[in-house]
Amino acid sequence: MTEQTQEVEQQAIEQEISTKEHSPSNLESLMHIPLEVSVELARVKLPLHSVVRIGRGTVLQMGKEADSQVDIMANGSIFARGEVVKANGKLGVRITNIVTPEERIRALS
């Protein structure tokens, strides 16, 4: 086998792999991967002596306003923001914006 033949075969293999990686069936498989979606209302740091005194009925005051947007995360990474709503008697979140890739990177640092 000549060097040129090997090169052509290698290119054909790489093209086939690339085509398979992006085929609809592979993308369809990815769409069924389960992700944990969570909503973070707010975070607060408290000294240990305050945490030990927390009991039933204690109200933890957060740093955000009551009508502030909440962060929506998939597997711990923020991907959207929204507002808390009541939907059919249950707690829900209305998406107000999708986080840009730049914002996602900033959130990691």
Automatic annotation (TrEMBL):
GO terms for biological process: bacterial-type flagellum-dependent cell motility; chemotaxis. Pfam families: FliMN_C. Keywords: Cell membrane, Cell projection, Chemotaxis, Cilium, Flagellar rotation, Flagellum, Membrane. It comes from the Bacteria. It is found in: Cell membrane. It is a peripheral membrane protein. GO terms for cellular component: bacterial-type flagellum basal body; plasma membrane. Residues 29-99 form the Flagellar motor switch protein FliN-like C-terminal domain. GO terms for molecular function: cytoskeletal motor activity. Residues 1-25 are annotated as: Disordered. Residues 1-16 have a biased composition (Low complexity). InterPro entries: FliN-like_C, FliN/MopA/SpaO, FliN_T3SS_HrcQb, SpoA-like_sf. Transmembrane segments: none annotated. Belongs to the FliN/MopA/SpaO family. This is Flagellar motor switch protein FliN. It comes from Mariprofundus aestuarium. The lineage of its organism: Bacteria, Pseudomonadati, Pseudomonadota, Candidatius Mariprofundia, Mariprofundales.
